[in-house]
Amino acid sequence: MTFLESLEGHKWQWPILASFVALYLVRMAVRYHRLRYFRGPWGSGFSKLQYDYKVYTGEAHAWCRDVNEKYGPIARIGPNSLITSSSNVWMHINTKPEYKRSKWYFSAVRVEHQRDHIFSQTDTRLHDERRKQIAPGYSGRENLELESSIDYRLLELLDLIRTKYLSDPSRGYINPMDLSKKIQYFTMDVISTLGMGRPGFGMLRADADIDNYIRSSEEGMRIANTFSALRLSWIAQAPVIGKLVCPQSTDVKGFGAMMGACFRAVDERLRDADHDKRRDMLASFIRHKLVGDELKSEVLETLIAGSDTTAGALRATMLYVMANKRVYVKLQEEIDRAVREGRVSGEGVISYSTAKQLPYLQAVIKEGLRVFPPVRNIVPKDVPVGGDTVLVEGKPVFLPGGVDIGFSALAMHRDKKVYGEDADSFRPERWFDANQGKLAAMMKVHELSFGHGRWQCLGRNVAQMELNKAIFERQLFRYFDWAIANPVKPWDAMNALGLFIINDFLVQVSAR
Ligand code: HEM
Question: Which domains, and CATH codes, for the chain?
C-alpha cells in the first residue's frame, strides 16, 4: 500500500496533503529568496531543468558560457546553484579550506559501487589524506619511468602510422586514418603503462580497442551523462540494485573487463617479491601504504582521469593546427630549426625539458587548451555553512551557505576582457603580443585549465609531457604532413559528463 492509498478516506487526507504542498512551496520560496540577487535564465530560481536538459543534449558547456555572458560573472542556474566565469572567484573557492566538493562528484564520478577514488571523494579530510598518499606517484619524483614510458608509446604510434597509414597523394593513394582512435590508443597505452606498469594495454601494437575498453567506456559515459541529467545517478550507489548497474571486474567484456585487467595487474605486482624496488606509479602508491581495494580504485582512477582528458586536448590541438595554415607552417619551422641547430639529438623522442624551450610550441599548447578546454564540467563546490563573501570585479558579493557553485570553462578561457576581442580564435601569437600585465592575467586564467588548489589535477605533469612530446614532438611534424580528410565535418564530438567523446576524426597523413 502506498502512502497516498493509506490516507484514502481518512478525514485528515486533504489537510495532510495540503501541508506537504505548503512545505514544498515554502522550501522553494526560501531557496528562491536566498539567491534572489543573482540573475539567471528564466525559471532557474525554481528549477534546474534547463541546465539538466543541456547536460542531456551535451550542450551544457555552451549554455553555461551564454548564461555568464548574459547575466554576469556569477549567475544562477538553479534554485540552489550558481555558475561563475570569474577566475578570481574560482581560485578563491578552490583555495579556501571551508569549501567542499558538492555531491555531484560522488554521484557522477564514482565508477565502482559504493567505493570512492580521489576524484569522487567529497569528504575533504579523506580527500586530503589520500592525495598525500598518491601525489608522489603522479609526480616524476617517485616515478622515474614516467618520461621513458611516454617515449616508448610515442615511438609505437609513429611506427603504426609509418607502417599502416601513410597516404601518397602524388600517386593517387589516399589511406584515411581515424586520428581520434589512434590518439586514444596512445593515451590509453601511456596511462595503463604508468598506472599498472609495463606492458600496459598494448592497443597501439594491436591497432585495436582491446576488449572494447574504449567503446564501452564511451557508452558508459553517455549513460552516466543521461543518468546525471535525469538526476538518477544515485541508482548506481543504491543498495542491491546499484551492484547490477555498476560495471564489475568479473565482466568478460567492456569497462568491467578493463577493471578486471587493472585489478589483476595490481595483484600480480603485490605478488612480485621485488615490488618495492620498482620506480613507477604503482610502486609509489604501495610505498605510501595504499592497500587492498583502495589501491585498486586509485589505479583504476588513473585510467579514467588520464585518458579522455589528454586525448581531447591532443585531438583538438591537432585539428586547430591542421585547420590553420599559418600556425602549421610556423610550428613546423620551429621544429625543423630545433633539429637543424642540434637542440634535438638523434632519432629518439624529444626530451620534455627541450620541448619546453620551444616558444611557439608552448604557445600552441596553451592556445589548444584555451579554445578547447578538454574538461568542461562545472566541477561544483559547496559554499561553507555560514556563507562567504567573494570579490567580483572589486565588489563584495555574499554567497549563502550550502549553495553549490561551479565554473564555466568556456566563458573563462574565451573571456574577451582577458584575451581580447578575438578570444574565440585560435591564435598562438597572442601569447607573444601581450604586454606584461596582460600576459600575467592570461596566464592566471590558463593555469585554471587544470583546476586549482587542493583539487588541482594530479596528472598535469603527465598530460603536459604527453602534449609536448606527442602532437608537437618533432617527429609528428618533422616526418609527416597532415590534412583533414573531411573539412565539412572534421569529427564527431559529444560532451558527456564534461569530457568529450570524439570519433571519426579522419585525416590524411603523408611522409614529408
Ligand atoms: C589535458 C589534460 C587534463 C586536463 C585538462 C585535466 C583537468 C583536470 C581538472 C580541471 C581537475 C580538477 C577537478 C576539480 O576541481 O575537482 C582534474 C583533477 C584530476 N586529474 Fe586531471 N586533467 C588532465 C589530465 C589528467 C591526467 C593525464 C591524469 C592522470 C595521469 C589526471 C588525473 C587527475 C586526478 C587524479 C584528479 C583529481 C585530483 C584531486 O581530486 O585531488 N588528469 N584534472
Answer: 15-511 (1.10.630.10)
